[in-house]
Amino acid sequence: MAHGTAHIGETAWRTEIMVGGHAITADEPEALGGQGAGPAPYDLLLASLGACTAITLKMYAARKAWPLVSVDVDLRLKGSKEEMRIERKLSIVGLDEEQKARLADIAERTPVTLTLKSGLGIETELV
Length: 127
Prior knowledge:
Pfam families: OsmC
Strand content: 25-35%
Protein name: Osmotically inducible protein C
Low-confidence stretches: none
CATH class of the largest domain: Alpha Beta
Shape: elongated
CATH topology of the largest domain: GMP Synthetase, Chain A, domain 3
Number of domains: 2
Largest sheet: 3 strands, antiparallel
Structural class: alpha+beta
């Protein structure tokens, strides 16, 4: 499965992440005391869902040999902390309405979508 690390040092909120062999910098916006050097944690969550959605839909269309031109995924985190939800809008080019509807249905079952909808246990230990 996946593995990642995150390191924060003396610079306020700037966090260096290594995941899948890729370096990512996360930070908070200046309005929250950060430097805006990278996406904030919830931005990374949306990025993960958006990437999984786009990739899964493209893979499905390729398997079906559908003439998909592009998929755009627009994501917004909405609500309060108690009732948070993600609004996802798909823009699909190159397919007919039936194919688009099928991809919208598939979007509800992408791996990251299912993980977010079902919740995920987290075990924490000091080392």
